[in-house]
Amino acid sequence: MSATYRALASVVMLIGFYVVALLQLAAVAALGVWLFSHTSGVITGKLLLPLVVALGAVGVGLWKAIRTKNEPAPGLILDERGAPWLWATVRELAAAVGTRAPDEIRLVPEVNAAVGEQSRLLGLVGGRRTLYVGLPLLQAMRIDQLRSVLAHELGHYSGRHTRLGGVAYRGRLAIGETIERISPRNPIGWVFKQYAKLYLLVDNAASRRQELEADRASVQIAGHQAASSALRTLPALDAAWRFYETRYVDPGWSVGLAPDDFFGGFGHLLQARRNEIDELRENAPEGPASRWDTHPPIGARVAAMDQIPPVHVTPDDRPAWTLLADVVGAGRALQSLIVAHGSRRLLPWPEFIAESIAAGVQQRADRIYRAAGRFTGTPEPGLPTVLELVRAGRLGEFAEQFFTNTTRREAAAAFAGPMETLLDNAAVRSGRAYWQLSWSDPARLVGRSGEPWDLAEIAKLAVAPETLDEALARLAELGVDVRQSTVVQARASARNADLIAALANIKIDGREHDVYVLDNGLVLVPDPGKAHEGEKRLKEVLSATPVAEVASRNPFLPYEEIRSVEVTKRVPLKAVITLHDGRSVQVQELMASEFLEKHSRDTLLRVFEQINE
């Protein structure tokens, strides 16, 4: 019943959207006639042009929604040979919920499962069905938990949610396309945005009801325990997947490396950190319910499950991945199909971790070496440059820039932390140590025979002139050559940097630029184009090009090269940037300047304040 309600509501709301458009078109036509009779044609055209553009966006949005094909999402198609027990399970569950089994099963990389149907004639005629199963679910769940998830998804079929859900999807698409094409400053845009909010409120409420209906099928087939535990496992798995990508994959990915068994690594992590994941599942905080959510909160769903009459189901605690003939092979096949490696080098996990962490340590060392080069005027700085500062008693003076609100003596002592990074870098560059992979703990530095290396004590000796020679002697005994640790990247780049703001048509030394504010520097794009198109241009560039690529094509000013910033006026912004080499850069916001988002100027001002701290 909820599927019929949702489809009917979507159709009515979508018709209403275009009724609103027609009423506004009539109002614009009437306004045009009145203006033309009281003013010149030129003035009439200028006043009506934004309104006509907005109404034209409605037609474009509808046309795109109509032409969009409901194609299956990408994934590895699992045939009977690759997943015989999974197919048998799905067919059994489909019969149990009273629906036709899917035509294909696709393995996908998400911590999720879903169903789709390529229905026709607004869902009156059914079509090809696809069941999507996330490989991380197979890796992490028990069979009874996965049965619960699959029964839930198949319940969407028996409830006709997928067949008529296409209407809701096209409604969202049409309205979204329309809103995206109307400027925020256009008065018609405000009307459409308010209507879009109303549409989403209605559609999301229907979606939440459908989820509760599908949960009923899950409980009736798999039982309360499996259904509720599977629901509570999903947020924990999602957090584990984010941790996996951030801690294990991203560092190597950002330096041109890729693991040769992307999904297999997650399986290793799950095994090594199972207790942590179990604890996260039991204690995961739940945010407040929102009327904008497409799914009810998990707590509310579990509570609704408790109201369903109990069904006796024998638990099955076998790992869900046994439903595949070869989970490792399936993971590698999915990786080759889904993961775009580009020119990255594929490495086994131990080598991938060793090289990625070594590259990260080198990047941190380079920042220190570049600072030492600016401080001493050394063109090719390295660890010997820093050690000479120690021997000359100038380390505290140099280290002040890294430790604010400290005396020089305190800064020198605190530099033992950065010094350990430099010594770790020297040990790896000397070929005496490497970073060892661990799935349960952070990677650790070990010697060539696998013995743990801890250079923290030597680092403490190396920051004081009176103990420097002892530190060097101990490093020599370990075979570490301090001369091997030198700067690799002589100037900071935007690689791995994040965009935090952007401003269009800002004068830099008297010449207009678009300014992209990153977390480690400013990208200055000269002669960008017309000011009134600034916001649109910034969005188009960022949607089409990674910001690091934009930085590689244009001047990049790293914050570490800036000595101070004098802000002479906050609105419109006027400032003078002074660099360590003595040069200055004039920054001036124009009245016609535009922002990527309304707080971009404030963000840039905060960056300037942090530089001056």
From TrEMBL:
Cofactor(s) named in the record: Zn(2+)
The keyword Lipid biosynthesis belongs to this UniProt entry's keyword annotation: no
Keywords associated with the record: Cell membrane, Hydrolase, Membrane, Metal-binding, Metalloprotease, Protease, Transmembrane, Transmembrane helix, Zinc
Residue ranges crossing the lipid bilayer per the database entry: 12-35, 47-66
Cited Pfam families: Peptidase_M48
Subcellular compartments: Cell membrane
InterPro entries noted in UniProt: HtpX_protease, Peptidase_M48
Protein name per Swiss-Prot or TrEMBL: M48 family metallopeptidase
